[in-house]
Amino acid sequence: MAMPKGPQAFPRAEYLRRLSAVKAEMKRREVDVLMVTSPANITYLSGYTSKSAYVPQGLIIFLKEEEPSFFTRHMDAPAAMHQMFIDNGRVVGYPEALIANPEMDGFDAVIEFLHDKGVASGRVGLEKKFISVQAVEKFKTKMPKATTVDFGNTVHWIRGIKSDLEIAVMRESAAIADAGMLRAKQVIRPGVREADAAAEIIATLVRGTNGKPGTDLSSFFLCASPRSATAHIRWGEDIFRQGSQINLEFGGVRHGYISALMRTFSIGKPSDRLRRVHEGEVAGLEAALATVKPGATCGDVAAVFNTTLKKYGFEKKSRCGYAIGIDWTEPTASLRDDDQTVLKPNMTFHLMLGNWIDEDFGYVISETFRVTETGAETFSSLPREIFEI
Prior knowledge:
The chain is α+β, with helices and mostly antiparallel strands.
């Protein structure tokens, strides 16, 4: 009996639309078959979000076939059958004998499959950035008649412009992030352990809101005094105290799509320094969002923020943000002065204005937004303020 499908993240037609865009690029570059190994790209093209990329796996797209095939470890095949829109017969689980095998791995099974399909002598696309040099050499050695073509970030660029369905899911993710931040406002109190507050916030991110649960937990950072200058650490074994500053960064997740959010909390009245940097950052944030429109560049947005912030006597040394969507960051565009990527409708970014000023002091605020036909739409509904407890 065929395994019943679980609920799919998107309709079949949406996945076929995405595949069509990839196949158009394959046709332009005369590629017969493409091996997609980036976990985020696999999610984008199939709906698969299982955490199985610790071993070789790949979505194989044939130029002349409607549906792709998927190779993964045998024990992970049922997850693909539940989550992917493709026919279950196209999910291939390679044997356990290829796991931790010093001579062979899952890519050997893929190469054998390509030989059986008669495409081992054609032009084969590989995302060389996402597989090891040894794996690339294996394809070249065991498919000597094939020409390997590097597809690099090609699929990432295609998924950089979201469909309306994707935007709707990112709005759902943003609502979950907002709920998590509001829960933080309820549970952060003097004497409360950082771990207990983190547990309550994370529970909210999992439970979700508006009837939509979170489907994963992505990066979660809680950086409290005396560690407010840190960017990427978790909760500690300490408690919150009167006068503590807490910098939070996390995102809501729906079907792999993330809307990130950062806010700063203060137990008691914020210091003058914190208030001043907050004023400058919010002014810069709003100036940056006002610059967003089709035809502007990532560099334009970053330059306006940096210029505005300097008027308040501060500067930000790290970039102002990045493309966001599946799996948090998308490696295509940065909100940085020298990035000349042109903004287009339905591109999505995390305007990440965390600013770690010195070893003792930092501040965070951010907005996830999409480029509209005329400007920017931010997904969060929370005020841009220091949350005072």
